[in-house]
Amino acid sequence: MEEIKELIKIYGLQEDSEYVIIPLPDKDGKKRRCFLLKRDFIRILYSEGQYVDYPLADAIEATVRYPDILLSEALSLIYNERGIDPHQISKPPDKINGNE
Length: 100
Hints:
100 residues, 3 helices
């Protein structure tokens, strides 16, 4: 979570005990905020029934840098800039089913 604390400082984000709060650009004069649960990973489900667990730090950076597009698309842009294939993101252990 140290990386998350650093991103909060760098981007001037807010947080509470459970969320990282990302202020977004005003749209039609309305303030917007994005709340991301403080977890190690954020899961994105795709229409094909597949899912990918992305590191929260990457989701924060993608949201800050590309607030007006889908998170999945923003993450793809981030990984393309880094030269990483998003399909090769490692999945965390499945702690829900006890398969670690």
